[in-house]
Amino acid sequence: MNTKVSIAGVELKNPVMVASGTFGSGMEYSEFVDLNRLGAVVTKGVANVAWPGNPVPRIAETPSGMMNAIGLQNPGIDVFMERDLPFLEDFDTKIVVNVVGKSEAEYCEAVEKLGESNADLLEINISCPNVKEGGIAFGQDPKAVEHITSEIKKVAKQPVIMKLSPNVTDITVMAKAAEAGGADGLSLINTITGMKIDIHRRTFAIANKTGGLSGPAIHPVAVRMVYQVANAVKLPIIGMGGIACAEDAIEMMLAGATAVSVGTANFANPKVTMEIVEGIEQYMKRYGIEDITELIGMVR
């Protein structure tokens, strides 16, 4: 029984990854999860310099999910490469580094430095506000998506996976723009913008007013978008959004994802990724599936 999948020429022992921002760089979870059993660990977003993040409170629970406005707090690329990457290199798993920035120059500076590292893939979070364009997210303008993808590809040593925002009219337009820019793969979806108001304090539950909604509530939206993108481009897709069990992961693969990232579920059940790996294996045995790649995009 083969559970291996390939993303842009990088082979993963299985399709189960963790979503950026929900797993740190693996250190916090290593006592609960055997990182060697994961297809890949995706790190928290890292920028060319340290970011302080947003003011608190910046997390709120919602029915079937949670909202966050962490603001991509991170220690900066230099600290990350000295402290976090060496920890992950001791494990038999692929390393995917999530990169953030507020301008093309910031993204490219971090990506260039990572060219000297043992990272296997780069996941570029283009839901960040573009400070040069009045704060609109890079991922909400197809021209910006294509341009930043092509600029990053010029300096990247590793394959580039563009992480798409669902907060757009038509996600296939953004996917095609990333493909035109030379992306090696796509990750989707990022969180959906939401708001929660505390009726007792009569103010916003999150200091930022709005936040990113994640968890089971967004899973059907994510499956739909993965399906649409899989039928619009020829790039491998890492599907994410509300995956909480093996059934959710398999559903995402049937829609067209080559691999999956598990995010919010890690907070409720730190061992969920191990359960999903085992659940996928049991599903394959139950239905006599010899090669997991048979599942990718099976539902048309």
In short:
With 300 residues, the chain is α/β, with parallel strands linked by helices.
Describe this protein's structure:
This protein has 300 residues and is of the alpha/beta class. It has a single domain, classed as Aldolase class I (TIM Barrel, Alpha-Beta Barrel), CATH 3.20.20.70. The protein is 30% helix and 20% strand. The chain has helices at residues 77-89, 104-114, 142-155, 171-180, 219-230, 246-255, 265-268, 272-286, and strands spanning 5-7, 10-12, 16-18, 40-42, 59-62, 65-68, 94-99, 121-125, 160-163, 185-188, 192-195, 197-198, 203-204, 210-214, 237-240, 259-262. It has an 8-stranded parallel β-sheet, covered by helices on one side. The protein has a 4-stranded antiparallel β-sheet with strand order 5-6-14-11, with no helix packed on it. It is globular. The two termini are 24 Å apart. The mean pLDDT is 96.
Oligomer category = single chain
Uncertain spans = none
Strand-and-helix sequence, N→C? Answer: EEEEEEHEHEHEHEEEEEHEHEHH
Shape: globular
CATH class: Alpha Beta
Main sheet summary: 8 strands, parallel
Determine the fraction of residues in helical runs and give it as a percent range: 25-40%
CATH superfamily: Aldolase class I
